[in-house]
Amino acid sequence: MAHELGHKWFGNLVTCFWWSNLWLNESFASFFEYFGAHNADPSLELADQFVVDYVHSALNWDAAAGATPMNWTSVIDNDSVSAHFSTTSYAKGASVLRMLEHFVGERTFRNALRYYLRDNAYQLGTPEKLYDAFRQATSEDLSYTQTYPGIEIGELFDSWVQNGGSPVVNVDVNMNTGVITLSQERFLISTPATPLAPQQWQIPISWTHSGNLDFTNTKPALVLTDTATIQNAAGHNFVILNIAQSGLYRVNYDDHNWEMIASYLRGSNRQRIHKLNRAQIVNDVLHFLRADKISITRAFDVLSFLEHETDYYVWAGALGQIDWLRRRLEHLPAAHAQFDTYLLSLMDTAIGHLGYNEGASDSTSTILNRMQILNYACNLGHAGCVSDSLNKWRNHRADDSILVPVNLRRYVYCVGIREGDATDYEFLYAKYNASQNTADMVVILRALGCTKDETLLNHYLGQSMHNDRVRIHDKTNAFSYALQGNRENLPIVLSFLYANYNEIRETYGGSARLTIAINALATYLTDFTLISELELGASFGAAINVVNSAISNLAWGNRLAPEIYEYLLERNSAVTVAAPILLLFAALAARFLH
C-alpha cells in the first residue's frame, strides 16, 4: 500500500519522461514502501528490513556482468520496457536513494524531493531535473558545502544512475603507520568472457575502527572517486566501512583485517558491531567466496561467529548465500554431508534462543527469524524441528480447530506433507480449494510441493496449471516450490516439463514466464546426467542458459569441494570431540559443587 501511495507523487504528480528513466517512478515508490510505512509503525522494523530485502538483492543482482544501468537507454520496444521493470528500477534505485539520504542528511534530502515535485508538478521528470533539485538543496546546506567541497552532487548521483553493476571497495590497512588505502572496482560474481570497460563511482565512505567503535553516525567521512588514503591511529586492530550498510557497495578487507574482524565477532562483544554491518559482513564474505576473492579458510573463519548469532538480520544476510553454496555440493555426498553437519551446528544456538513456539511479546524481527531459521532447519532434517512440526501438523489433522500458528505454517505444512502420505496431501489440498485467504493459499501451495510421492507431485504440477484458483505468477513458481521443499523432486519436475512443455507455455501465456520458471531450475541442477537430459531433450532456447549456468555451478563445486571437505571434516571432528569433554567437565563441576 505504501508503495502505491508513493506513486501519487512519483509517477502521477511527476512521471518519468521515458521508460529508460522508469526508476524515477519505481525507485521512489519502493523507497517509501519501506520508509513511509516505517514512520507509520516503527515496530515493523522496515527501515532495517530494507537492507536485507532491497540492498542485498540489489547487490546480488548487480553482480552479474549483464546488469543494466538505472538509466537504460536500450529501452526501445515492449520487451525491453518489460525487462526494465526489474530489481534495477526497484531495489537498486531505492538503495541509491537511501545512500543519498545518509550522504546529504534527512532534511536536505527531503528538501530536494520537495523542490523536484514543486518545480515539475504535472510535468515529465528527468534525472537532470532531479539532480537540479539536489543541487539547490545542498547549496542551501552549509554543513554539506563545508564537509564536501568540490563534490558536485549531480555528478555523484549520475555515477550511480549511468553505471551498470555496483562496486566493491578494497581496504588495505597498514598496521604500522595506520594508513588505510581504499580502491574501487566493479564487483562481478564471475569473470565475463569479454572484459568490461573500467567503471568508476563516486562512493560515500563512512567508517569506524576498533579503537572506538561507533555505528551511530552514518554521515560519510569522504567520497571515493578512484583511490584514497585515510589516516587512522597506528595499531588499531581493525576498521569497518559502510556504517549500517548505508551505501550500495561491498567491502573487501586485507587478510589481516578480516582475521581481526573474525576474532572480534567470535568474542562476547560481537553485538557492538551493528547488526546491519554483521549482516553485510556475512553476505559480502559469501559473495567473495563465490567470486574467488577470499580463501575458503578465511571465509569460514569469518562465518564461524554464526554459531553464537541469534539476530534476524545477520541470518537473513547469510542464509540465501549459504543455500547457494550447499547446492553446489549436493552432487558430492561426502562434502554435502559435512556441510549439513556444519550448518546444523551453526544454527543450534539460534534455534535454542528462538524456540519452536511464538511468544506474545515477540518483536517483528524475532517472528521473522523463527520463520527463516526453522524453515531452513527443518529442510536440513533438524530432529527437533521435524519432530515439533510433525506434532503440530498431526494435532491439526486430528482436530481442524487446533490451528497451526500463521507464522509457522510454511515449514510445519511442508514437513507434514513431506513426511506424510496421500491422506495428508488430500487434506491440505482441500484446504487450498476452500481458502479465501490469498496469503494462506500461497503457503499451502508451497507446502504441497514438498511431497516425495511421484504420483502426488505430478498431480500438484498438473493442478498448478489447470486449477483456476492458482494465480498466474504462482503457476510460474510451482516448479521452484516443488524443489524448495524437497530437492529430490528434480527428476520428476524435469520429466513433467519435457512431457508438457507446449501446454505449459500456453498456460503461462507465452515463453517469457516459462523462461523465468526454467531459469529458476538452474541452481537445483546438481547432477551431470540431469543436465545432459535437459540439454538433449529440451526443444526450447531457455534451456541453453540453464544448462550453461548449471555446468558453471557444478564446476565451482568440483573445484572447491576438496578444500571445503577437508576444512569441515577437521572442524566438525573438533566439535564432536569437544562436546563430550565439555559434558564431562560440567558433570565434574556439578559433583564438586554438590
Protein model, in words:
With 594 residues, this protein is α/β, with parallel strands linked by helices. It folds into 3 domains: 2-162, Neutral Protease Domain 2 (Neutral Protease, domain 2, Orthogonal Bundle), CATH 1.10.390.10; 167-271, Immunoglobulin-like (Sandwich), CATH 2.60.40; 309-576, Zincin-like fold, CATH 1.25.50.20. Helices cover 61% and strands 7% of the residues. The chain contains 26 helices and 10 strands. The protein has a 4-stranded mixed β-sheet with strand order 8-4-3-10. A two-stranded parallel ribbon has the order 1-2. A hairpin with a 5-residue loop joins strand 3 (167-173) and strand 4 (179-186). The longest helix has 52 residues, at 542-593.
Provide key terms for this protein.
metalloprotease; Neutral Protease, domain 2; Zincin-like fold; lipoprotein; 594 residues; signal; Immunoglobulin-like; 4-stranded mixed β-sheet; two-stranded parallel ribbon; globular; 61% helix; alpha/beta; disordered C terminus; single chain
Low-confidence stretches: 536-542, 577-594
Structural class: alpha/beta
Sheet-strand content, in percent, reads 5-15%
Number of domains: 3
User: Which CATH first-tier class of the largest domain would you pick?
Assistant: Mainly Alpha
Strand ordering within the main sheet: 8-4-3-10
Q: On the 0-100 scale, what is the average pLDDT?
A: 90
Main beta-sheet strand count, sense and barrel state: 4 strands, mixed
Record field, number of beta strands: 10
N- to C-terminal separation? 61 Å
| CATH architecture group name of the largest domain | Alpha Horseshoe
At CATH level 3, the topology of the largest domain is: Zincin-like fold
Provide a count of the helices: 26
Radius of gyration, rounded? 25 Å
How much helical structure, as a percent, in the residues?
55-70%
General form: globular
GO molecular function: metalloaminopeptidase activity; peptide binding; zinc ion binding
InterPro entries: ERAP1-like_C_dom, Peptidase_M1_aminopeptidases, Peptidase_M1_dom, Peptidase_M4/M1_CTD_sf
Membrane topology: Lipid-anchor; GPI-anchor
Signal peptide: 1-29
